[in-house]
Amino acid sequence: MNGSKGQKELFTQEDFNKNPISLNDELSFSKDLIRAWQQRIHTYQEPHFAKAETTPIQQSIFQTVGVEAIETSPSPQDLVPLPLNFWRWPQNPHNGPAIYLVMDKPKNLEFHILLYIGETIASDKRWKGDHDCKQYLQAYSEACNKADLKTQLSIRFWKDVPHETTCRRNLEKQLIHKWLPAFNKETRSFWNTPFTN
Predict the structure, then answer these.
(1) Residue 55 pLDDT more than 90?
(2) Which of these, 45, 92, 67, lies nearest to 171 by C-alpha position?
(3) 3-state SS string over 162-183?
(4) Which of 149, 157, 175, 187 could form a disulfide with 144 if both were Cys (CB 3.0 to 4.6 A apart)?
(5) Alpha-carbon distance 69 to 60, whole Å?
């Protein structure tokens, strides 16, 4: 039986030339579409940023990880911003357990938008390897660039977190629930995030 020869006869080159969709076609996003998506996130997160600016930060809050830990967590804007390629530096500025937050500061918005929250036991290694969020951020950056929108992406590390993985993951889960960052898998459908497909 010569299946491959018969299969080729089902489609001619002319059939492919008629098809307007190519595998090389890229999704394009208009400036208005991206700004509207950013604005929706900003509208939800703005009260959290505003409240965090007026809430004092406790230095060590992890006897128990609960609502009080979330309410007294530092404002993401108060954490030191680093470029996303920080892990290429000769000396890594962070190691050990951390909660990390990836943010952008669109020019037309008052506050940052929080795009991703993650946790790690080894902050000096987690961002080096494969990470879905890196792909989403690249797609987001490229779409913004093509729409003539500037990004100010940064990653920030919160180091005063539990060393125990279960507690740290619980804290990460609560923070994701509070902030609804657009690139976390738990929230992508909520925001109809277009940069993750």
Answers:
(1) no
(2) 67
(3) CCCHHHHHHHHHHHHHHHCCCC
(4) 149
(5) 9
Contact assessment for residue 127 and residue 93, using Cβ atoms and an 8 Å cutoff: no
For position 47, what pLDDT does the model report? 92
DSSP of 110-164, one letter per residue? SS-EEEEEEEES-TTTTTTS--HHHHHHHHHHHHHHHTT-----EEEEE--S-SS
Q: In what order do the strands lie in the sheet with 98-104?
A: 113-120, 98-104, 154-158
pTM of the model: 0.76
In Å, what is the CA distance from 160 to each residue of 2, 145, 166?
Answer: 65, 35, 15
Nearest Cα to 48, choosing from 107, 134, 133, 110?
110
Average model confidence (pLDDT) for the chain? 77
The answer to whether 151 and 142 have CB atoms below 8 angstroms apart is no
Give CA–CA dist 79/26, Å, rounded: 35
End-to-end CA distance of the chain: 38
Read off φ and ψ for residue 49, nearest 5 degrees. -65, -45
For residue 56, pLDDT beyond 90: no
Cα–Cα dist 172/162, whole Å: 11
Distance CA 118, CA 126 (A): 10
Looking at residue 19, what is its pLDDT?
Answer: 44
Report the alpha-carbon distance of residue 140 to residue 127 in Å, rounded. 18
